[in-house]
Amino acid sequence: MKLTLLDNGIDSVKAAYNVLVDIEFNVDEVEHRVKDAVIFLNHANEILFKLLIKQSCSEALNFVSVNSYMEAKEKMIQQGKNNVFEINPNLKTIGFSEAIRRLELMCDIEVCSFLKKSLNYLNKKRNQIMHYEIHLTEGEFSDIINKLQNCQGYTVNFFSKHIENFNELLDGARFEITGEYPDVEAMADEAYFDYLSEQAKS
């Protein structure tokens, strides 16, 4: 099995799209679908931001400690491994906010202001969902659905300008709905550790 940053990001964008289609057609458990869409869109953007950092600057910038990454990569090459995490499973990658910061300041790729604003809003909602609980009025619930739909559009528009054949890859992505979605809880766990890392730095 090989799942690249591109594969991973495209899959989450498509997953978010499918969830939003479900919401539009009023399937059951809309609240759970909204939760999934929030997590999928955050995950998709974070992964694809990291892809742009890797392509335009250096993979090392996707890690909290560049030195730890380089040490692991040196051993990876020496030992003929395929991945730095095989050498050091405790390596930490940067979180969502830091990925945007490094992309803009180190790689000179400006992130659309509408996308950033949309993601910042959804990131706050994601943190509420992940770390405790969330309460929304009917109006607020409708608002978050609208913001999810807008964010999906901003996401596709931004990355289609920076990733070759992005729209074609998205159209061709296979995301089978079999009654269960991909492991959203695992994504939440990963995002939680990123959140703690960023909180520790603030």
Give structural notes.
There is one protein chain. The chain is mostly helical and 202 residues long. The chain has one domain. 71% of the residues lie in helices and 0% in strands. The chain has nine helices and no strands. Helix 1 crosses helix 8, helix 2 packs parallel to helix 5 (96-105) and helix 2 crosses helix 9. The radius of gyration is 17 Å and the shape is globular.
Topology record:
Layout: H1 5-24, H2 30-56, H3 66-79, H4 84-87, H5 96-105, H6 113-131, H7 138-162, H8 166-172, H9 184-201
Summarize the structure.
With 202 residues, this protein is mostly helical.
Shape: globular
Mean pLDDT: 86
Describe the largest sheet. none
- Report low-confidence residues grouped into runs of 5 or more: 175-182
Give the terminus-to-terminus CA distance. 37 Å
Return Rg in Å. Answer: 17 Å
* SSE pattern, N- to C-terminal: HHHHHHHHH
Number of β-strand runs: 0
Judged by helices, strands and strand pairing, the structural class is mainly alpha
Q: Helical percent range?
A: over 70%
Number of domains: 1
Protein name: HEPN domain-containing protein
Name the descriptors.
HEPN domain-containing protein; single chain; 202 residues; mainly alpha
